[in-house]
Write a structure and sequence with these properties.
CATH topology of the largest domain: D-Maltodextrin-Binding Protein, domain 2
Oligomer: single chain
Helix content: 40-55%
Shape: globular
Number of helices: 18
CATH architecture of the largest domain: 3-Layer(aba) Sandwich
Order of helices and strands: EHEHHEHHEEEEEEHHHHHEEEHHHHHHHH
Number of strands: 12
Strand content: 5-15%
Number of domains: 2
CATH superfamily of the largest domain: Periplasmic binding protein-like II
Largest sheet: 5 strands, mixed
CATH class of the largest domain: Alpha Beta
Strand order of the largest sheet: 2-1-3-12-8
Distance between the termini: 36 Å
Length: about 400
């Protein structure tokens, strides 16, 4: 029997899977692709009706659990193997897919239990791609980007600059800037510290005023493409793609640096990347799922085949490899501090819809079409409503 899988439509995502299929033809998985926009917004519950294995984004986890779309890996994979994969993962990639279900059997394990607390939970996906927001620039045009957001507006006046505000990324930029003020998911009622958020929006408006505004409304893939083509020279914050470190006949090589700081010593970044989850409605064969995961997550595959194919593994064996780092222009060492410090987004049921609406409002503030104060007030009120205890217990959306 052939397992049916879904990944997202970028070489970083599908080429490692293609290379693994050639490496292990005895493990049969047929992979389809969806766009980055669909990957960020399409409900996992819809995908789980058609696919056995799904590459997912952790912010959609709450909705997926609430709709019984996923099988907890605790029911499929031996505990010692899960523990080994957890120990081998980098940053908070593993914890971002750990969450307590409000229904069904509970198991214990380290992770995030809700929007803002740490505790026991089940594992709902294995991280297979590690990414976070970092500065991106053309090393042939710039020596280095600013290390702090305070210097970005002046730098943007001197160099061709793009922000990254498309889709959810306007909100994610604001969250990244405010993350140093709250290193984990919010422990209080507010998503954003109002004073820090207002100051961050002032800086983003100043950068917008002198930036390439067309490319500033794009997603990270398009921004990287504009940088590689020479349209712009610098982006202060976008999810990094190591595959752009190697020049081609048509594109220049890019370089990366840690995310800028903002009011704290740690780089301000929001965790991205992907995890591999298993459909609950389709109930694929357990042995086949275990066989694929065990073979794909083997250290030699994660530190060899996957990065060689342009992937960004979530295993430390790749991130710690000097050979992998050299092969991809020093990408891994340049951004490791940002990855280790990256802020984990809420995974509450309803977060994706809130993220989309909030990003549109943040974009309007940055472009001078909405009030910063009203937007921050609305966002914090909406987050409090999303995460109020009685709502979470009722499982409402």
């Amino acid at each position: 029997m052939t397992l049916r899988g879904l990944t997202w439509d970028h070489p970083r995502a599908y080429r490692p899977l293609q290379a693994f299929a050639a490496h292990r033809p005895d493990i049969a998985v047929s992979w389809d692709r969806q766009s980055l926009a669909d990957f960020e917004a399409r409900p996992i519950a819809t995908l789980a009706q058609r696919y056995d294995l799904m590459i997912i984004d952790h912010p959609g986890l709450g909705a997926a659990i609430a709709t019984n779309a996923l099988q907890p890996l605790d029911q499929l994979i031996p505990a010692d193997l899960l523990a080994a994969w957890q120990a081998a993962s980098v940053g908070s990639t593993w914890a971002s897919y750990t969450m307590i279900a409000t229904t069904g059997p509970a198991t214990t394990g380290p992770g995030i239990t809700g929007p803002g607390t740490m505790g026991a939970g089940q594992q709902w996906a294995v991280p297979v791609d590690a990414a976070t927001q970092v500065s991106v620039f053309r090393p042939d045009l710039l020596a280095a980007p600013p290390r702090d957001w305070a210097g970005v507006p002046t730098f943007a006046r001197q160099h061709r600059t793009a922000l990254c505000l498309g889709g959810p990324h306007a909100l994610l930029t604001l969250l990244a800037m405010c993350a140093p003020a709250q290193p984990g998911p919010p422990s209080g009622p507010d998503l954003l510290p109002p004073l820090a958020a207002a100051a961050a929006l002032d800086i983003l408006r100043a950068v917008w005023a002198v930036a390439d505004q067309e490319w500033s409304l794009a997603d990270p893939i398009a921004v990287h493409g504009a940088l590689a083509a020479g349209t712009v020279a610098y982006c202060p914050l976008a999810y990094g793609y190591a595959s752009y470190a190697q020049p081609t006949a048509a594109h220049h090589a890019l370089a990366w640096a840690d995310a800028p700081t903002f009011g704290a010593a740690r780089p301000g970044s929001v965790l991205g990347g992907t995890g591999l989850a298993v459909s609950a409605p389709r109930r694929p064969d357990r042995a086949e799922v275990r066989g694929f995961l065990t073979a794909f997550l083997a250290p030699d595959v994660q530190a060899g085949l996957v990065p060689a194919a342009g992937g960004q593994p979530a295993m430390a064996v790749a991130w710690d490899s000097a050979a992998v780092d050299r092969a991809w222009g020093g990408y891994y060492s340049a951004v490791r501090r940002s990855l280790d410090a990256a802020w984990v987004r809420p995974r509450a049921d309803g977060w994706i819809a809130l993220q989309d609406r909030a990003s549109a409002l943040v974009r309007a503030v940055i472009t001078g079409q909405a009030s910063a104060h009203e937007t921050i007030t609305w966002l914090n009120a909406s987050y409090r409503e999303l995460t109020r205890p009685e709502r979470a217990e009722a499982g409402t959306t």
